[in-house]
Amino acid sequence: MSHRRFRRFTAGLVTIAFSAIGAVAMFASSAASAAPVSFSITAAQFLPGSGYGIEFDETNGTLLDVRFSTSVFTQQNFSLSAVNQSFSFNFGSVDLEEPDAQAGINSNELDNLDITAKLTFTAPTGAIQTVTAAGTAVPGGIGDSFVDYVIDWSPVTILFGNGGQFRLSLTDMVFDNRGSQLQTATATLLALPDDGSPVGTDLPEPASLALLGIGIGCVAITRRRRAKA
User: Fold this and answer.
1) Of 76 and 103, which is predicted with more confidence?
2) N or C, which end of the chain is more exposed by having fewer CB within 10 Å?
3) In this structure, is the dihedral angle defined by the CA atoms of residues 172, 83, 193 and 34, taken in order, positive or negative?
4) Is the domain of 98 the same as that of 70?
5) Domain membership of residue 155 as a residue range
6) Which long-range contacts (CB under 8 A, 24 or more apart) does 87-91 make?
7) Residues 159, 165: contact at Cβ < 8 Å?
8) How many angstroms separate the CA atoms of 136 and 52, rounded?
9) What is the mean pLDDT of the chain?
10) Residue 37 CB neighbour total at 10 angstroms
11) More confident residue, 163 or 209
12) What's the farthest any 2 CA atoms get from each other in the chain?
């Protein structure tokens, strides 16, 4: 093989080798990046406090007529791949039906109005998670334009895996008359879990290693020939 043809041959091998190096680097970088976090929520439930209920005699009423339902909930399966990414879904509905008779909401219907929401997770953690809220009723008529009832939810942070975190929250609600509102819930990814693999430790394929070795060898031969010329 002539010197010129040999140089072309080795140059081609070097190009292939460095292409292989790039592919190996891309493979390692891709493998080292965190995978999306899968979420699965199979059930939802409201647990209202003892201050809620339906009364047939409002003369001396002690229960606030607010009706909670999760009939709109369906199993949720979704993935989050970046910090602060979130997903919202329908959790249930809340219906204020307190009658306007006997001056609407009276002072005996203002207590024990806490609420708990329960969600059954199978991923990324297999457990029942709870979010709590304080319900506040305002004495007075229901048919006016003033606020009658408020639900203030307290978000919770849930840990999973090795360092993973997400926030579970429900939307706050304000009622200024009778009627139903849709209750939504949101999961927000706060931190990705560490899978335990140090960055850059992924092993390249044998073919890539072979090409890399050929390229290095060709570079060495080319330098020797130049030194002798």
Assistant:
1) 76
2) C
3) positive
4) yes
5) 37-191
6) 87/39, 87/186, 87/187, 88/184, 88/185, 88/186, 89/41, 89/184, 89/185, 89/186, 90/182, 90/183, 90/184, 90/185, 91/44, 91/117, 91/119, 91/170, 91/183, 91/184, 91/185
7) yes
8) 12
9) 82
10) 22
11) 163
12) 112
pLDDT tens digits for 143-154?
Answer: 888 999 999 999
The length of the chain is 229
Pull the structure tokens for residue 93.
Answer: 């509905």
Supply the pLDDT for residue 128. Answer: 98
Strand pairing class (149-154; 179-191)? unpaired
Residue 196 located in a structural domain: no
Residue 155 clears pLDDT 60, i.e. is over it: yes
pTM of the model: 0.73
Backbone angles phi, psi at 223, to 5 degrees: -65, -40
For residues 135 and 114, is the Cβ–Cβ distance under 8 A?
yes
Q: What is the DSSP letter of 77?
A: E
Any idea what DSSP says for residue 193? P
- Centroid of chain to Cα 146: 36
For residue 202, which amino acid is it?
Answer: D
Per residue in 14-44, pLDDT tens?
454 444 445 444 444 444 457 999 999 999 9
- Do 141 and 211 lie in one domain? The reply is no
Same domain assignment for residues 41 and 142? yes
Regarding whether 180 and 143 lie in a shared domain, the answer is yes
CA dist., res. 105 & res. 141, Å (int)? 6
pLDDT of 195: 74
Q: What is the Cα–Cα distance from 133 to 155, expressed in whole angstroms?
A: 9
Backbone angles phi, psi at 189, to 5 degrees: -75, 125
